[in-house]
Design goal:
Shape: globular
Mean pLDDT: 92
Structural class: alpha+beta
Radius of gyration: 18 Å
Helix content: 40-55%
Low-confidence stretches: none
Strand content: 5-15%
Largest sheet: 4 strands, mixed
Number of domains: 1
Distance between the termini: 27 Å
């Protein structure tokens, strides 16, 4: 697996030039947002993964690190939604430094289960908040090149790279327990949830 690296200064400047053209265009607002995603998407560093939830680790462990688990996982722009980032970039014309900071700081993602993704705003269900993230999420150094964006959609996951990495580093740092949905009713709730231990 090749290491993850930031785009070159040349590419950053080309992205910024496209951003200015989109900003100044007469396209409708939604089309502008879609174009901003196209400018920055589908690169090895796009949606770079900086963490993984204990529940996602649990799903990987249950599947012995096999790539079939990928269908249960998603990357979530947990820190700031892509829509918010695009809205910010279209609210005013940013200079290059401000543009890059707004995009790069907010393009990072967390690997989580689809269930967590579906209820990411319901803290009472997922327990995920920016304030207590360290207690629920394992850090991943995106520079190691794991979970890279694919060329068309999704992210890279193989047993030899991502699967073994998770098993070797986090398998013994989670506790399995029966999932408690509390007063909530779900069609297919997870049978178990996982907690992070240090």
């Amino acid at each position: 697996m090749s290491k993850g690296i930031e785009p070159s200064e040349k590419l950053k400047n080309e992205m910024y030039e496209f951003y200015i053209k989109v900003f100044d265009s007469s396209f409708d607002y939604q089309k502008k947002k879609n174009l901003l995603t196209s400018i920055t998407g589908w690169e090895p560093w796009s949606w770079r993964v900086v963490g993984i939830t204990a529940n996602a680790v649990g799903a990987i462990v249950e599947n012995d690190g096999h790539a079939r688990v990928k269908s249960q996982l998603v990357r979530d722009h947990f820190f700031q939604s892509r829509s918010t980032t695009s809205n910010n970039l279209l609210s005013k014309k940013y200079d290059f430094e401000s543009y890059w900071k707004e995009f790069w700081d907010n393009d990072k993602t967390v690997i989580m289960t689809k269930f967590e993704h579906s209820y990411v705003d319901k803290i009472e269900l997922t327990g995920l908040t920016k304030e207590n993230l360290e207690s629920k999420v394992f850090n991943i150094e995106w520079e190691n090149g794991l979970f890279k964006s694919e060329k068309v959609a999704g992210f890279h996951f193989t047993y030899r790279a991502e699967g073994k990495f998770i098993l070797n580093n986090f398998k013994n740092r989670i506790i399995k327990k029966k999932w408690n949905t509390g007063p909530y009713k779900f069609k297919n709730p997870p049978e178990y949830s996982y907690s992070k231990i240090n």
